Every structure is written in structure tokens, then in C-alpha cells.
Amino acid sequence: MVIVKPRTLSGFMELLPAGQVAFEKMIEVLKNTYALYGFTPLDTTILEAAEVLLAKGGGETEKQIYRFLKGDTDLAMRFDLTVPLAKYVAMNQNELAFPFRRYQIGKVYRGERAQRGRFREFYQADIDIIGDGALDISNEAEIPSIIYRAFTALGLKKFQIRVNNRKVLGGLFELLGLKEQAGDVMRTVDKLEKIGRDKVLAILCEDFGVDASAAKTLIDTLESTDPVATLQSFSGKNELLDVGISELSIVAGYMSAFGVPAENFKIDLTIARGLDYYTGTVYETIMTEHPEIGSICSGGRYDNLAEYYTEKKLPGVGISIGLTRLFYVLEEQKYINSALPTAPADVLILPMTDDITYAVTLATGLRSAGIRAQIHAEKKKLKAKFSYADKLKIPFAAVLGEDEITAGTVTVKDLQSGEQNALDFGAAIQNIAEKLAGKADITVISEPV
Amino acid sequence: MVIVKPRTLSGFMELLPAGQVAFEKMIEVLKNTYALYGFTPLDTTILEAAEVLLAKGGGETEKQIYRFLKGDTDLAMRFDLTVPLAKYVAMNQNELAFPFRRYQIGKVYRGERAQRGRFREFYQADIDIIGDGALDISNEAEIPSIIYRAFTALGLKKFQIRVNNRKVLGGLFELLGLKEQAGDVMRTVDKLEKIGRDKVLAILCEDFGVDASAAKTLIDTLESTDPVATLQSFSGKNELLDVGISELSIVAGYMSAFGVPAENFKIDLTIARGLDYYTGTVYETIMTEHPEIGSICSGGRYDNLAEYYTEKKLPGVGISIGLTRLFYVLEEQKYINSALPTAPADVLILPMTDDITYAVTLATGLRSAGIRAQIHAEKKKLKAKFSYADKLKIPFAAVLGEDEITAGTVTVKDLQSGEQNALDFGAAIQNIAEKLAGKADITVISEPV
Questions:
Q1: Neighbours of A95 (CB within 10 A)
Q2: Inter-chain contact A16–B95, Cβ cutoff 8 Å?
Q3: What angle in degrees, to the nearest 10, is found between the helix axes of B323-332 and B17-36?
């Protein structure tokens, strides 16, 4: 037999069991949160016809894409969940009810240059709300509430949702005579936090020929410590700006009713989001202790989801979390809760006799009560079996020897405290169930103090 | 704008929202069931180095595989979950605790000829138990219990788990002087149910030169109505056969303690499973009203999971469900429960005022109580909003007009019964929660009577 060295591709994440449990818990929390807001799950194909997936074409994406021929068919692996959503909505527009709210959590593929913390296969968790022809501003106001509830349910406390409106930026550009360079100005402004005020001013004036005083007014406005008041001073001077200010005020005004605390929400006029795509509210989410990580949940309002696939106008709003990267970052920052139960079983049943009928009966009883039980009947020493429980962090052992069988009991050992008791089956099941119930609320994330 | 016709590739399944909810419910039930038996979740990469994935090489699989170059890298998409498991266990053998029990539910890819009910991208749901060097027979006995609990939890009642042991077949072949043709005989015998006794006898004698009387004895034994008694008559004549009979008896003997009813379990000596791979107990699962569908859950015991990747001997036992095909079959046979709640929300909140603060506050309260709520604030007629609820089968509407705001109430309408009541927020939340609790146990599958 020729042995091939087993390996996983560079830029592809494969977790050990304990990490995988934490990752799946993260997905479960997000699914449950999205469901609370009326989002339906969606699952699109990972492989698509290249012609369909690349309908929009061009850009950085096309170079990174995994694309190949199978027979005569030109195939490509999805590189995000937005293009597949656009395809799905366009295809099924007569079957769907609008507004269409869907979440999708799935793998996407980008053949980027491999580097630490960058992945080529990674999970995205997306939600989008798609309207038919129109979509009320209240949907834009609801998004921060979803972000807040999701991260809070994960156990994160120190984060801030930063919100801006592209109409505010667009209106300011018009007002300052920068409409022609709007795209370049937008992308430059987006770098404010990263490269700082001076470099942004230099790029605006030197690279894009923006008038120095206009550039200064723009940056002063965007960096204002009281952005709402500053914006009000421009009121009535530009139509687009007025709409933007109004939308931003509506969004901010609903935060309290949505239960989003003031410390987790901020209007930040410097948030631009690079994509041309966005037309209204835009969102970023920062871990306040780790701003260097950048946004962990971003998105915005757009006017036309599926213009490459249908004449129908489909405005929407959506956000995305890069889950694989987030998990990587959380692990690196020691934010994954070490108290999170990751054991594959709640009870390890240790039969000491050849006939294990008694152990099987106990296992069946535990499982019917919703308790995860594993029978360890391998021919190994008892000490090795306890080491196994220890390595997997299984919280309880149930020992069944001749004595227990004769007495009709089971010796339940709490492997954390070392405490052990001989109980009859019913009492054992109840005892274990009660102790497990206390651990149900442990979150995935625990912030270091 | 050039419009590209949106489409999904042939042989790829994409479900509408209601179907997707049922599909995800199926996955959730399987995950919960596997967890009860101490299996840990695993997620391996979909893309692998071709050299690694095809270490075993050859066969039908290699022709069907999606394989391509990205730069200089020879890549392939996984075609099952067993090879990735072998790779994973070989790679991480020092990190894992044995026996290693894992489940994996994920997409696999096979470029088969497209035909009705055959998929090129499809979900498999696999469990395997891997031992280091040895694995106790009790693990083989536990598998039917997992299959039983899984399908029962899904709502299926009319199914039968059929079990055989490859050592029984191997022993019989030795005893009847068919050892040399064992592989061919095994694969022919596997077709007994499909092509019938006469054709199998003809193939054995004519194609593989089996002696007519040996062939008849073999088929008579395999088709015996009392297989255990028939096998006992061969006792002591062949060592392998004796081991097989003993293992089969042990497996069958534990069924009652595992809670598997007699009508859902059968020793069937005609079950061979095509793969050379299996060495002990083998499993198939038949929908008793639809045997023509074939096995919906199959697997068996094998001696060496990862011989292409490591010198370490890793015996195991596992089963697999082809979930996408199963779902397709269930839909086609009208087995998907029409009573399964598929609505994306429990309550549709209908604000009748421009300021929706009051609606947002109700939504926040409902969500905090775990009730899925959607605010429908689009500028549409009330009638259209009720149609929306109807189309999505949302069970409750909460109407909030000026009257309700003044009175501090909400009008809760049960959209199934038409009943409606004005309640204060707390009472409304409690009322809806109670009515929803009654629907929690509805299974995915409901068999037509």
C-alpha cells in the first residue's frame, strides 16, 4: 500500500472537535436570532454555471474565482451569497412573497493569495430583506437590532454598530461640488480610520483634484463629534442630503424601541463601505477593544439586487458576517469561552460485565430523556476509559458492575467534583438532567477581563 | 444592461422556502439524534488536493469527480464523506480520542449522468465510530438503534432495518467452495431482491462457473425464512462462519434493550452491500411500503478506514443517508407532512400608523420571549398584508392602529380560526406563546394512510 500524506489545503479551515462544537454553536445562535426576525433559511448550490455567476463580471472577484470545465460545461464556485440570492429571487419571483427575508449560512470560495487569517473556503452568514419595487426605511432601522441581538446572544458585549447613509455622503459631495469624483472620494473617505485624516486629505487634493477647502469642509463634517447637529446645519441646501439626514434620523430614532443600548450604536459619517452598490443606510460593526480587526458585520441598503437577471426592480438591505474569519479572530484573541461545553456526550457509560444489556438499557433511558450517552464497551482498562472521559470533558460517568446489576442501581460519578452516588435508573437520569440544565446558557464568547 | 437568464444547474437541488424549512428540520432531527449517541460534529473542506482525495484511486468514482487545476494546484471536490474522514483521522490521530464518534452532514459532488431523482450536488448524513486497533461488536449492535431513533424522530413508521454479517456470507462461500469467486458471488447475491432468485442462480452458474448444487444451497440458505436456525445447522463447520453467526446473534440480541421493536428489525442474509470494504455487520433500511426506492440508510463494519493515509489500523462502523435523494423521494411520495409549520415568522405585526415605535416595541417584546416576529410596514393595503401572511402561512397577525395605541393594547388575530382579541402586550405575548407550544412536536414526515 502506497501511503499518501494526508493534508488539508492551505487557506482551508478544518477544526478539531472542540473547536467545531463552538463553531456550530455560533451558527446555531445566528440561525435562531435571524429566525426571531422572520428570516427564512435558504440554501443555494455551491456550483453554478459560470455565465450566471459572473453575469456582473469584471473586478477583483473574477481573478479569484474557482472556475473550470466539466465536459462542455463552464462551472464556477460561488464567491459570495449575494449573487446566488439575486439569481434565486429572479428565478423564483412568482413563487416568493415580498418582502422576502432570507438568511443563508454557507461556504464560499475565493482563491486569494494565502496569508495568515485569510481563507479560500470560508463561511458567510448573510441576511437580506428584498422588496418588490419598494422597501420601507423601517427595514433599514431593524438591521442594527439584529446585529445587536446576534452578538449579544453569542456573548460579545464590547462592540459598536456604526451606521451612516450613502445619501448623506452623496448629498455632501453634490453640495461641495464633488459629484464627478464621487466614487473616488467615497473610496478614499472609507479609509479615514485606517490611514488617518492627513493622508485622506492629501489623496483627495493631490490624486483626485479636490479643492482644498472643500476637502477640509468634507472631512470636518464627517469627523464631527456631533454629526446630527453638524448635518442639520446643511439642512435645506441639497435634496439628496435632506433625504439622507431624514433616513439617518429615522434609523437612529428607532434604536431605543428595538432595544439597542446607546453604547452599542453610533452614527459615524466616515463609514462609506467601498461598494458602489449601496444607496442608503450602511453598517459596520467594530469590536471596541479590537478596532484593528476591522468590521465583523457589514452591509447596507441597495436599490437593485438582481438587475443582471431580471427587469424587476428589487431593492433590499442586507448584512454579512465572515464567520470563518470571525472565529479565527476570536480564537486568536482568546475570546472563545473555555467554559463552553464541548463534550460529545453528557454521560459515559462504563459496563464492567461481558453482557452489556444493563448498560444498553440505561443508555436507552438516558437518550429518551434527551441526555447524550455513550457506552464505552471497548476492551480497555477502566483507567483508560476515565482518561477518555477526561480528554473529551464528558461531565458524568455511569459505572455498571456486578454489584450495581445485582442491586438494580448505577454508580453516577460527577467527573468534575469527583462526587459519586449509587442511584436507581430513574433517579440517575433525573440527577444528571438537573445538573446539565444549569449549563445550558453558557455563551460561545467570553471577553477577557 | 444585458440580462442573463437565471438558472440552476441540472442535477442540483434548490428548494423554495417551505421545502427548505422541511429539509433543515430533517437535518436538525438527525443532528439531535446523532448527538444523543455521543457523536461529535465534523466539518471537512469541500475542496481537497486531488492527490489526497484520490489516494485510493480508480473505479467509477474517478470518472464522476469534479477535478480541476487552479494555478498549479490539482484540486477535487469531495464525492463522499468517508474519504475526508479517513484523511482527517489520519492527520489528527494524536489529537483525537478513540473510539472517535463523529457525524457529518454536508454536500458531496458526483458528475453522474443527469436523470430524474439523481443529483450531482447532494447532502450526505454520515456517522462513523472509529477504533484505534480494535472496535467492540457492541458498536455494531448500536447502529440499528440509531437508525430506528432517527427515522422515528423524523416521523417515519413503516420502515425495516435489515442486517447481515459479511463473515456469515464469507464463511458460507468458503464452506461451499466459492472462496475464489467470493467477490463476484457477493455482488451477484446483492441483486437478489432486485432481479430475483432465478436470474441470480443463472448468473452464478453461467457467468461465474459456480456448481449448480452449491448455488442452490447458498440461495436456499440466504432466502431461508428462519435464517438463524438455518445458520445454526452449519455451526462448527467453518471458523469464519461461526464468528459471523456469533456476531449476528449478539447484534440481534441487544435490539430489545436498545428499544428497537421487532417489526423494525430483520436479519436478512441476502443483504450483501456491493463494497469490498465491509467486513462485519452490514445494514440497509427499507421503506416497507416502497421497497422499490431501495435502501434509504446503509452502511457496515470495516477493518481499515485510512490505510491509504496511515500505518495505524483504524477499524470502524458507519452508516450514510443520502439526504437530498431521500427528501426528493419523500416529496414525490407525498410523505412530507403538510401540517409542518414552514412560516418564517409566528406573528406578522401590522402597524397602521406612520410612526411604528409601538410596533417595534411589541416586536422586541415578542422576540425576547422567543417568538418569531416580523413587522410589515411597507406601504401596501391591509388586504395585501393579510394575503402575504396567508401565502407564508404565518399563524398570527398583530394589528396596531390608533385605537390600540390609545388603549395600550394590540389586536391579536389567529389567522387559522379567524378569532381575534384585543390584549395588552404581556397577555398577547403569553397567548401566542401558549398556542405555539402545541405545534412544537409536528414531525417532518407523515405517512399517507
A1: 10
A2: yes
A3: 130
* Confidence band for A275, pLDDT divided at 50, 70 and 90: low
pLDDT single digits (tens) B178-209: 988 888 998 898 888 889 999 999 999 999 99
**The model's pTM:** 0.96
And the C-alpha cell for A369? Answer: 430523556
Within 10 A of B116 (CB to CB), how many other CB atoms are there? 6
CA gap B284, B269 in Å, rounded: 11
Give the nearest partner residue to A8 out of B21, B45, B99, using CB atoms. Answer: B45
* Distance between A229 CA and the closest CA of chain B, angstroms: 22
Q: How far is CA A347 from CA A369, A383, A395, B141, B287, in A?
A: 12, 16, 7, 19, 33
Cα A177 to Cα A231: distance, rounded to the nearest angstrom: 17
Q: Could you report the per-residue pLDDT of A26-45, keeping only the tens digit for each? A: 999 999 999 999 999 999 99
Q: Which residues contact B12 (CB under 8 A, 6 or more apart)?
A: A45, A47, B119, B120, B121
Residue A85 Rama label (left phi>0; alpha psi -120 to 50; beta)? alpha
Are A215 and A201 contacting, i.e. CB atoms less than 8 angstroms apart? yes
Side-chain-side CA neighbours of A334 within 13 Å: the count stands at 2
Angle subtended at Cα B24 by Cα A73 and Cα B339, rounded to the nearest 5 degrees: 120
- Cβ neighbours for B83, distance < 8 A, ≥ 6 positions apart: B53, B55, B56
Q: What is the DSSP letter of B6?
A: P
- Which domains are seen in chain B, by residue range? 17-332 (3.30.930.10), 347-437 (3.40.50.800)
Cβ contact A394:A348 at 8 Å? yes
CA A327 and chain centroid, separation: 9
Measured between beta carbons, which residues in chain A are less than 8 angstroms from residue B309?
A: 3-6
The sheet that has A159-165: what strands, in order across it? A40-41, A100-109, A121-130, A316-322, A298-302, A278-287, A159-165, A265-267
Q: Determine whether the interchain pair A344/B35 forms a contact, defined as Cβ–Cβ distance below 8 Å.
A: yes
The answer to whether A145 and A161 have CB atoms below 8 angstroms apart is no
* Residue A60, min C-alpha distance to chain B (Å): 16
Burial classification of residue B139, based on how many CB atoms lie within 10 Å of its CB (0-12 exposed, 13-18 middle, 19 or more buried): buried
**pLDDT, tens digit, 9 for 90 and up, residues B57-110:** 766 777 899 999 999 999 999 999 999 999 999 999 999 999 999 999 999 999
